[in-house]
Specification:
The structure holds four protein chains of four kinds.
Chain A: E1 40-49, E2 52-58, H1 62-68, E3 75-76, E4 83-84, E5 97-100, E6 107-111, E7 121-124, H2 162-174, E8 189-201, H3 205-217, E9 221-224, H4 234-237, E10 240-241, E11 244-245, H5 246-259, E12 263-266, E13 269-275, E14 279-284, E15 300-312, E16 316-318, E17 331-333, H6 334-343, E18 351-356, H7 363-370, E19 374-379, H8 387-390, E20 400-401, E21 404-410, E22 415-421, E23 427-431, E24 434-438, E25 441-443, E26 456-458, E27 463-465, E28 473-475, H9 485-502, E29 535-537, E30 542-543, H10 544-552, H11 558-565, H12 578-589, H13 593-596, E31 608-609, H14 610-614, E32 626-627, H15 631-636, E33 640-644, E34 647-652, H16 661-674, E35 677-680, E36 685-690, H17 694-701, E37 713-720, E38 726-736, E39 739-744, H18 749-763, E40 770-773, E41 778-784, H19 788-795, E42 812-816, E43 822-826, E44 835-841, H20 845-856, E45 862-863, H21 866-875, E46 922-929, E47 941-944, E48 956-964, E49 969-977, E50 986-991, E51 996-1003, H22 1013-1016
Parallel strand pairs in A: 1-7, 8-9, 8-15, 9-12, 15-28, 17-24, 18-19, 18-24, 19-20, 32-34, 35-45
Antiparallel strand pairs in A: 1-2, 3-4, 5-6, 5-7, 10-11, 13-14, 14-15, 16-25, 21-22, 22-23, 26-27, 29-30, 33-34, 35-41, 36-39, 36-40, 37-38, 38-39, 41-44, 42-43, 43-44, 46-49, 46-51, 47-48, 47-50, 48-49, 50-51
Chain B: E1 2-5, E2 9-12, E3 17-21, H1 37-49, E4 57-63, E5 71-77, E6 83-88
Chain D: E1 19-21, E2 30-36, E3 38-45, H1 50-61, E4 71-73, E5 78-83, E6 86-92, H2 101-105, E7 110-114, E8 119-125, H3 129-133, E9 151-156, E10 159-166, E11 175-181, H4 185-196, E12 201-207
Parallel strand pairs in D: 2-12
Antiparallel strand pairs in D: 1-12, 2-8, 3-6, 3-7, 4-5, 5-6, 8-11, 9-10, 10-11
Chain lengths: 1017, 102, 416, 209
């Protein structure tokens, strides 16, 4: 709200046109005014509600179009299924929630008050059956005496098993509001970043004033407005600014803002969160005002706005008064009545009663009268018109009653009459088809409280105003408790100037626009106590007596009140109910409202679609992916790919006629074991470790020694975490005195790089060592099998000596390839075969694969994937991810002897703790089923033979399995208690998950060529 | 959350990885110590596991892995999330240091 | 007054004027046999079991704010016992068994709803890890089922099977898992403990400890000094702060974990689902809101609120696995302070200080542990020895190297 | 003897489809060009040798390497700040390149790592380029904050990238260079294309000059 003055609203409205005519105004709009309003009468739009077709105009919201069509009943409430209408004209709407669109685009709980009308809009009421008018569940109203706050905690306990089978399904079906789509959301979303000096939140009078000031001063400004146009309450209440009509001022202000290159105005953009360091989140409804977004268009966009300062000019929300029948369709906030009349030229009622406890509400009288409606009566507990209005023509005839509204009688469509109880206790009934209510205004303190700041009570306006705002944020205008137009403009201007100055923008900000300063007088009235359900939280059906019941039962803290009654937990987050609820609690406990306090304000300010928060990151784009240098070549060959972290790796290369993966993998393994094959292992992490102290550095991060490694040699290394548990392994080669080439596992490349940088920069900055990732620079292939040398000799320059003497096991050096390329060659073996790893610059990776295929043709060279790689490493008893599981020590893996005793290294001390060196630890062993045709499965547990499996007898589990083509049976690695001393023991493999139970032998984990003859051959 | 990298300027927190309290210092471990493993294990236990878990301003390690790959030491209030000074780890650049670092 | 449909109906006749406080509001006495610091689920359950199982009724629960204001009131309400390591498995199953009879024990409907949990897996390695875990469960007498992709598709047809970045290969199901109404658990224990004589004292913040000859003899509070035979701490989230008053430093860090709830919608999701290739898990409350969450923000925090990157990360996970929720709106986000221990597993133990007992380090397993934590802590306080199912939750396990590290992440709390 | 061909292959061989994408009406809002054939060497000063490194660079390139996030154009290479006391030497791949001299010039004073194939370079320009960039980069690329010559090490899709700004193009529009890790190139290209479709995208590839 931005204050008021006595002048006319923004768009001059004309008398109600009950018999509308003319081609642009179809007859159905029975409650549309003949002229006026910010609607485009040249653009009629058809829409349907609950299957009934109606028309409205461009510029309408669904709510205003329904009002214009005389529709009052639009929803049913959550618990009692009471009929509900439209209460507000903004995003605080608690009642008028509808289901929009259909099918995969069905969208529950949309506020009719914020949904812009578009042609062929389809909306349906929700939470009713079979129809809105005849809702079977309204039978709940009869049970209302039982359905009080927290009733479900006291019952549904007997018999115990009825909860899941009977009671809960019943409750769940009854609960909820709309129905979500059950198909993938077909629309697109994205997310973007924006940066500015000053973010202005809310484009009403104060916000425009702030943006103008900061923009003129030279700051980079973003102004966000949730509505489809800026103006705020000016659009509904008008006023005179700088001697001109508000509409003219508004036009001038928006023109000026558009002319400033440093100012960006974002409409349909609602700020929903305030995060640390000046990060704000906003939702732009890019295409919600059309049926379906256009090609390449998103439906909504989430903005993260990084702002050095923010000025929150988010206005205020009018609050209801709690009295029996205050939820009837046709009971509407007074400001909303004015919005529908003035902005949308739609009459909420022909005979309107007003119930207000403050001066602002009185402007509704003028609005209705000007539009040709009738004022049935004004009920004001103060008993007379404010001084300002006493002289106004038309008001003289208005009936003013003291006291309060104590009941609302309902006709078929909504309010039929109201009952007014005077201060003397006498009641009278007054006919009216609409009741406008104003209980005062609550500044929108939510955004300013998102960092747990507490709002402060201000008696003069009987409302909370912002307290400790997040760093960098100021509030201005009605959000700051300034309720006159003049003050809003001044306050906004001052805030804009100050925020800009703090960002170093000190240009001429001009003067604040001027408007008159009306006094806002209010006499707090929270509740009219009378018989009947008086609602505090409309959507959750929380009544005044629920609040007092909670108090009686000891739920006195506001947070207990909220949780026990669900007050303020509905989709409006209590925007219209919280303050009333705690006022009633305050009265019941004899405390003041500030003593009672508020619940915590939490983002989002208004609900945000989950799809928007995900943006582009869904389906295949959920996470980025990494491709190996030979990816497209492998795809050509029909490889099956597997996700390994972010990488896509060739898992196996099926050939025509192969019946399953096992057949392909077995072929690949046998080809390697019998001849030669190759595998893209570029996914291994690769790090250049450079500088004179590189060797010393590696000595400290690895458990074994690297400073003594000769240039031209490679060594297997193992590193621990500082807690003594194994972190990663890999081979590291010394390519020059001051150059080591370190490799990591695929999974740990990132964490290891981070760890190494920590060691270099934090732990040992005295060491002269430099690190850089070389993972993506190199395409690396493992070439393995007895024919490896033959194959390599074909691609490598003949001058290079690949013999055992010329290139011994664990040798590492550069070689020239035929055709002029230089490669790095490492004689290392994961498969246990005679093998080399070769790396070439990544751009030649695909060429290398193709050339290996050509060179290896005589030997039947076979590309193999990660499955075959895994089979061969299990046959060789090499540990990998399943064994390096973050809980195993070097000794658990059989690598304890590698731990140097001559030096400190990361993890050395902690690895010595008693429980990590206990003799009964589970260590890596081999297992093979006694029955050679039995399939072994990972995750099966190991228990001693002849005992009953139980927590006490569970001795370990199978970590990795494969079908070994050379042994022609399933084999595996396992972590087994005291396993190394149990080779030859028959144990029970217990796998209840898969209903399997069989015997296996514990054995040496190296199943294949335990002497290592082949890899050295 | 925004973090002012001393090299890159203010950046989005998503570019950084968090390690935690920068107060614990890695103990020196003398290989030839005759005191037995206990004292060293006690010292490392303290370093690896025990935390002041400050409610207030804490010095902590952040790694600008999604940026310039520098380890940083930031002062940050764990109650308000507000950052104070952010400085580079001693070995972030090429400065030569006589002593071991943090 | 006993709660039942009959008492409810009777009360309705008198306009519900007859209900009295669910628990008393006593002034603190000078002395209690046991003082529990922390009026969350764990503290209140401890007091309840002390009174019910161990006959110790002169007990006070001190709460600095309103009961349930910590993590008991800001979690995602999931209960399950699908743990894989000795120490955890039996303990969480004890908890599950106590959940299963909670309503009858407490005469309070905490809406324990065993609609099951399915942890999805997306790789062979994940399947194997789940198989190991599921088998551990079965060996411990806990229900577990390993489902393949076809079975998952039949049960949860609305997940993304056709265009997933990380395809769903199957899942580990525990049918007895589910959710409970978190606040009701707090209120139910409070009422039941109160009925057995326990004093629940709200707005009473502990500001220090009193000692006699080194032994803890009581606490100083904002409502005066209270002497105690024994003092138990159940203040997860603020453990380090309270421990510091006694001069203790612990293997614990406080981290923020965010959670989210959507607008209420008609039933859409049957049980609890966790996404294995991102940070996302979800269930639907009886009221209709989708309750979902993901990973820690990743930095130490006492702020009870988090930041945008995790909001986005969680929603991206949600859309990746369940693209039908794109148009459902997130209604509220909140943050709890997780007492993150160095191995991801809790501590229920005596402290090195005589008379002071510790219940801490719940990471994000605290809610599901509530009943067993109360029982085990009560046992420890009453008997001075650990409960058999909590025997491995010792404080000295880190020094000894006997960590219980389900995730294998080591001493880095933000990775657990 | 078989002739082995060593064709250099771009990581974008599948994902880059030259031509117009997205909205087709009017001028393309974004142009996206892969720049092929680059040489890139990471130069990291050794401890205590930052000054010597700068001197050696000056001798070879005619300019000192930037000590803050900037890109400076030297004789045979552009020097792009990539972290404290380190930079990337970037040039078009050519037969007469003098990059071979780097090892000699920096011997003992800086460590080098060849990254010519570890990164993939693309160039983004056009009247709507900043709007597209705002969807995947959290950097403030406003003229006042990121003028020509500015550079940043940052992240896209949780992946490290180097971004630097060239002189404006002939059309007066800002030109942004984006260096991404090779294995991510396919994925990030798709992200960039998606962000630009609503503005109309012209995609192409070119050889570095």
């Amino acid at each position: 709200m931005s204050g008021y003055s006595g002048s006319e609203p923004l768009s001059r409205t004309a008398a109600l046109d009950a018999n509308a005519s003319g081609r642009a105004a179809p007859v159905s709009q029975s409650h549309r005014l003949r002229s006026g309003g910010l609607i485009d009468r040249q653009s009629p739009l058809q829409f349907s509600f609950d299957g009934k077709t109606m028309t409205g105009y461009a510029g309408d919201t669904l709510a205003s179009a329904l009002v214009a069509n005389g529709v009052k009943l639009v929803a049913r409430s959550f618990k009692y299924h009471r009929p509900r209408g439209i209460m507000t004209a903004g995003s605080e709407e608690p009642s008028a929630l509808v289901e929009m669109r259909t099918g995969a685009r069905r969208e529950p709980n949309t506020r009719a008050t914020t949904a812009e009308l578009y042609d062929r809009l389809m909306a349906n009421s929700q939470n009713r059956w079979p129809s809105l008018r005849r809702d079977f569940m309204s039978i709940n109203s009869l049970l209302a005496p039982i359905f009080v706050a927290g009733f479900y905690y006291k019952t549904f306990m007997w018999p115990a098993k009825f909860w899941e089978t009977v009671y809960e399904p019943m409750i769940r079906r009854a609960a909820g509001l709309g129905k979500s789509a059950e198909l993938p959301d077909p629309d697109h979303y994205d997310k973007a970043w924006a940066h500015c000096d000053v973010l202005v939140v809310g484009g009403g009078s104060a916000g425009l004033s702030a943006a103008l000031a900061a923009g003129r001063a030279g700051a980079r400004v973003i102004l966000c407005e949730e509505d489809s146009r800026v103006g705020g309450r000016l659009l509904s209440d008008g006023g005179d600014i700088d001697g001109m009509h508000a509409a003219d001022w508004l036009r001038r202000a928006t023109d000026e803002l558009a002319s400033l290159p440093n100012v960006r105005v974002m409409t349909r953009t609602a700020l929903f969160g305030v995060y640390d360091g000046g990060v704000y989140a906003a939702l732009e409804r890019v295409n919600d005002h059309v049926a379906v977004p256009g090609p390449h268009q998103v439906r909504q966009r989430v903005w993260r706005i990084v702002a050095r300062r923010s000025v929150v000019t988010a206005g205020a929300i009018e609050r209801p008064i709690v009295f029996p029948g205050n939820d009837r369709p046709g009971v509407m906030m007074a400001s909303a009545v004015r919005t529908y009349v003035n902005r949308f030229a739609a009459m909420p009622g022909r005979r309107v009663a007003l119930f207000t406890n403050n001066d602002d509400g009185w402007r509704t009288v003028e609005a209705i009268q000007r539009a040709g409606g009738e004022i049935a009566a004004v009920v004001d507990p103060r008993g007379r018109a404010p001084a300002k209005y006493q002289a106004v023509a038309g008001l003289r005839d208005v009936r003013v009653l003291t006291g309060g509204v104590s009941d609302v009688k309902r006709g078929v469509d909504g309010v039929r009459s109201i009952v007014v109880t005077g201060r003397n206790g006498l009641t009278q009934q007054i006919e009216a088809d609409c009741l406008a209510v104003s209980g005062g205004w609550n500044p929108n303190v939510g955004l300013s409280c998102f960092h747990r700041g507490k709002p402060v009570w201000r008696d003069a306006i009987a409302a909370f105003v912002p307290g400790d705002a997040p760093r960098g944020m100021t509030t201005a205008g009605a959000a700051n408790g300034e309720f006159s137009l003049g003050a809003c403009l001044r306050d906004g201007h001052a805030a804009g100037v100050a925020a800009a100055a703090e960002c170093g923008a000190a240009g001429n900000a001009g003067e604040a626009a001027e408007a008159c300063d009306d006094i806002y007088a209010i006499s707090p009235l929270w509740q009219v106590k009378a018989k009947g359900k008086a609602f505090v939280d409309f959507q959750h059906d929380v009544t005044a007596s629920d609040v007092t019941l909670a108090q009686r039962e000891g739920f006195e803290s506001v947070e207990h009140l909220k949780r026990y009654t669900t007050l303020g937990m509905a989709t409006d987050q209590g925007k219209t109910s919280n303050v009333n609820g705690l006022a009633i609690m305050a009265e019941a406990t004899g405390r003041t409202i500030p003593e009672t306090g508020t619940t915590i304000y939490r983002p989002p300010y208004a609900p945000v679609a989950i799809g928007a928060l995900a943006g582009h990151h869904r389906d295949e784009n959920f996470h980025a992916w990494r491709l190996t240098p030979s990816h497209h070549w492998a795809a050509e060959l029909g490889a099956v790919f597997v996700d390994t972290g972010l990488w896509k790796r060739a898992q196996w290369y099926p050939k025509p006629g192969e019946k399953d993966w096992l057949e392909s993998v077995t072929r690949e393994v046998l080809s390697v074991r019998n001849s030669v094959g190759f595998c893209d292992v570029s996914t291994l992490g690769k790090v250049d470790v450079l500088g004179p102290d590189a060797g010393t550095f590696l000595d400290r991060v690895y458990i074994n020694t690297f400073s003594s490694l000769a240039v031209g040699k490679a060594r297997y290394g193992l590193m621990l975490r500082e807690d003594g548990i194994v972190m990663d392994d890999g081979t590291t080669s010394r390519l020059a005195e001051d150059h080591y080439f370190l490799t990591t596992t695929t999974a740990k490349a990132g964490p290891v790089m981070q760890h190494l940088e920590f060691c270099r920069q934090v732990l040992w900055p005295d060491l002269d060592v430099q690190l850089t990732s070389a993972t993506d620079q190199w395409a690396q292939f493992s070439i393995a099998g007895p024919k490896t040398r033959d194959l390599l000799q074909a691609v490598i320059e003949p001058s290079e000596d690949l013999s055992n003497e010329g290139f011994p096991f664990m040798g590492a050096r550069e070689v020239k390839l035929r055709g002029g390329i230089v490669a790095r060659l490492f004689r290392i073996s994961f498969s246990g075969e005679m093998a080399f790893e070769m790396s070439v610059p990544a751009c030649y990776g695909e060429a290398l694969a193709r050339n290996l295929m050509i060179a290896g043709k005589p030997f039947g060279v076979t590309p193999y994937g990660t499955e075959a790689l895994g089979v061969m490493r299990i046959e060789k008893g090499h540990v990998a991810g399943p064994e390096l599981n973050g809980t195993t020590t070097a000794d658990d893996l059989g690598l304890g002897k590698m731990m140097s005793k001559k030096k400190d290294f990361i993890g050395r001390v902690m690895a010595g703790r008693e429980a990590l060196t206990a003799p009964n630890r589970q260590v890596v062993v081999g297992v093979k089923p006694v029955d050679p045709v039995r399939r072994l499965r990972s995750g099966a547990h190991v228990v001693p033979k002849g005992v009953i499996p139980g927590p006490e007898t569970d001795q370990g589990y199978v970590t990795s399995v494969c079908f070994s083509p050379v042994l022609a049976q399933w084999i595996g690695l396992a972590l087994v208690e005291r396993g190394r001393g149990r080779f030859g023991e028959i144990v029970r493999i217990h796998d209840p998950l898969r209903s399997e139970d069989y015997e296996a032998e514990i054995c040496n984990p190296v199943f294949y060529d335990p002497e290592g003859v082949r890899q050295r051959g | 959350m925004r973090i002012a990298c001393p090299f890159c300027g203010e950046r989005e927190s998503g570019e950084f990885t968090y390690l935690g309290d920068a107060s614990p210092k890695r103990p020196n471990f003398a290989v030839d110590s005759v005191a037995g493993p206990e004292p060293a294990e006690d010292a490392f236990y303290d370093y690896v596991y025990l935390r002041d878990n400050v409610a207030g301003v804490m010095r902590e390690y952040w790694y600008h892995g999604g940026g310039c790959r520098s380890w940083l030491i930031a002062e940050r209030n764990t109650v308000t999330h507000e950052f104070g000074s952010v400085t580079a780890a001693p070995g972030a650049g090429a400065t030569k240091l006589a002593q071991a670092g943090e | 007054m006993k709660y039942s449909i009959f008492s409810l109906a009777k009360a309705a006749l008198s306009g519900h004027k007859g209900w009295t406080r669910a628990w008393r509001d006593p002034a603190p006495k000078n002395h209690y046999d046991v003082v529990i610091i922390g009026g969350g689920g764990h503290g209140l359950a401890t007091a309840y079991f002390l009174a019910r199982e161990y006959g110790i009724r002169n007990v006070a629960v001190l709460e600095k704010g309103w009961i349930g204001s910590g993590n008991a009131g800001r979690n995602t309400t999931i209960i399950r016992s699908n743990y894989g390591l000795p120490g955890n498995t039996g303990f969480y199953e004890l908890s599950m068994k106590l959940w299963e009879r909670m309503e009858q024990d407490l005469n309070y409907n905490a809406m324990v709803s065993q609609r099951g949990i399915i942890n999805l897996y997306h790789s062979d390695a994940q399947r194997d890890a789940f198989a190991r875990r599921g088998n551990t469960m079965r060996i411990n007498g806990i229900d577990a089922e390993l489902l393949d992709a076809a079975q998952i598709r039949k049960e949860l047809p609305f997940l993304n099977y056709d265009s997933a970045r990380f395809p769903i290969m199957g899942g580990l199901a525990q049918r007895r898992a589910g959710t409970a109404r978190h606040d009701a658990v707090v209120w139910g224990y409070a009422r039941a403990a109160d009925q057995r004589g326990v004093d629940i004292i709200q707005n009473c913040e502990v500001t220090g400890f009193t000692r006699i000859n080194g032994r803890i003899s009581g606490v100083e509070t904002t409502r005066g000094t209270i002497s105690a035979g024994k003092v138990g701490m159940a203040v997860a989230g603020n453990t380090s702060r309270v421990a510091a008053m006694a001069g203790m430093k612990l293997p614990i860090e406080s981290h923020v974990l965010q959670a989210f709830v959507s607008e209420a919608i008609k039933p859409l999701i049957p049980g609890v689902i966790t996404f294995g290739a991102g940070h996302f898990y979800i269930s639907q409350s009886d009221k209709g809101g989708l309750v979902f969450g993901g990973d820690l923000d990743g930095y130490n925090s006492y702020a009870q609120r988090g930041n945008m990157p995790v909001v986005e990360d969680v929603c991206e996970g949600g859309m990746a696995v369940m693209p039908m929720i794109g148009r459902v709106r997130m209604l509220r986000q909140w943050g709890g302070i997780m007492d993150m221990s160095m191995d991801g597993t809790p501590i229920i133990d005596k402290t090195p200080i005589d008379g002071l007992y510790l219940n801490a380090g719940w990471c994000y397993g605290g809610f599901k542990a509530t009943p067993a934590s109360g029982l085990a802590f009560a046992h420890l306080l009453a008997r001075d020895e650990p409960h058999s199912e909590a025997a491995l939750f010792r404080l000295d396990r880190f020094r000894r190297g006997a960590m219980i590290d389900e995730k294998g992440q080591g001493a880095q709390p933000n990775l657990h | 003897m078989v002739d082995y061909l060593w064709n250099a292959q771009s990581p974008l061989q599948k994902e880059l489809v030259a031509g117009r994408h997205g909205v087709t009406a009017g001028q393309a809002g974004v142009t996206l060009t892969e720049i092929r054939g680059i040489m890139l060497v990471q130069v990291m000063a050794r401890r205590g040798k930052a000054v010597e490194t700068a001197k050696a660079a000056k001798k070879l390139f005619g300019v000192e390497p930037p000590s803050t996030p900037k890109a400076v154009i030297g004789k045979i290479a552009t020097l792009i700040w990539s972290g404290p006391d380190q930079f990337l030497a970037f040039a078009a791949r050519s037969a007469d390149s003098q990059f071979g001299k780097l090892a000699e010039v920096f011997a003992g004073i800086a460590s080098l790592s060849d990254q010519s194939d570890g990164r993939c370079l693309s160039q983004i320009s056009g009247p709507r380029a900043r709007e597209a960039l705002a969807k995947f980069s959290s950097l403030d690329l406003d003229d006042t904050m990121f003028p020509p010559g500015a550079t940043a090490t940052s992240s896209v899709d949780h992946t490290p990238v180097n971004i630097w700004r060239d002189a404006n193009g002939a059309d007066g529009e800002a030109v942004f260079n984006l260096l991404v890790f090779t294995s991510f190139a396919d994925s990030l290209w798709k992200t960039i294309v998606a962000s630009a479709l609503e503005y109309g995208l012209e995609a192409s590839s070119a050889h570095a000059e």
